[in-house]
Write a structure and sequence with these properties.
The chain is mainly α. It folds into 2 domains: 88 residues, Fe,Mn superoxide dismutase (SOD) domain (Helix Hairpins, Orthogonal Bundle), CATH 1.10.287.990; 46 residues, no CATH class. Helices cover 65% and strands 0% of the residues. Helix 4 packs antiparallel against helix 5. The longest helix is centred in the middle third of the chain and has 23 residues. This is superoxide dismutase.
Length: 164
């Protein structure tokens, strides 16, 4: 069959209607947990983090945590809670899969936001707390790295394998 403009428009309209009215698209519209927009262009962090890396990390990994969280919490009381409360409650209730996906979604929200800007060095209450509790920002950073190594990298089995 020869394709003409009329056929092309009809096929495009049918494809759009199929997509618009498909169950997966309707389900996405009702998902309680939604990934925020990236607060800057994907290339804004280049050359430190490439646009390709940001696109992959934000568009695939971060989005994946939200998708999985919505699947796990569908028709549960968690679906009615703010993301932060899901993290806390799922941890308390030992809902490991929900906790892991909610915590990663929330953690990545903070990750992307940190690059929007702000003071170059700690100041105010953060600086005061770091000094009184850890002896300063440098020691706080050392403690954060040491503690995160115990929790995350060991679970992945990558500590000591040169991956960082």
């Amino acid at each position: 069959m020869k394709m003409n403009r009329r056929h092309m428009l009809a096929l495009s309209g049918a494809a759009a209607a199929t997509t618009l009215f498909s169950p997966s698209v309707r389900a996405q519209a009702s998902m309680p947990f939604k990934q925020s927009e990236l607060p800057y262009e994907e290339g804004a962090l280049s050359p430190v983090i490439s646009a390709r890396t940001v696109g992959l990390h934000f568009g695939k990994h971060h989005a994946g945590y939200f998708k999985k969280l919505n699947t796990l919490t569908e028709k549960t009381p968690y679906a009615e809670l703010p993301l932060e409360e899901v993290v806390v409650r799922a941890k308390k209730e030992n809902e490991t899969a929900i906790f892991n996906n909610a915590a990663q979604a929330w953690n990545h929200n903070l990750y992307w936001e940190q690059f929007k800007g702000g003071p170059a060095a700690a100041e105010g209450a953060l600086l005061d707390a770091a000094k009184s509790s850890f002896g300063g920002i440098d020691e706080l950073q050392k403690q954060i790295v040491a503690e995160s190594d115990k929790v995350f990298w060991h679970r992945l089995g990558v500590v000591g394998k040169g991956w960082r």
